[in-house]
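Researcher: Excuse me, tokens okay?
***
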Amino acid sequence: MQLSTAQILEDYNGLWTNKKYTDLTLICSEDKELRAHRVILAARSAVFGAMFEYDTKEAQEGKVELSDVSLEVCQEFLRYLYVGKVEDR
């Protein structure tokens, strides 16, 4: 049995929406926090991959500060990393 791309994206969207098993906190502007999965971010972003591969502060603490990025932008960025699209506004 082979899963369809649509099913895989639906599964990843489920991870994104229910935040189950998250192991990382992104801290956006105004100290707003979003939970995420290191493995997803590392797989989809070379920057996050390098950050978690080495003994960085972020890897040790499980927190990434994006203090100059709004909560809305952080949310759409994560949605893009998880499911490859952003919401139409």
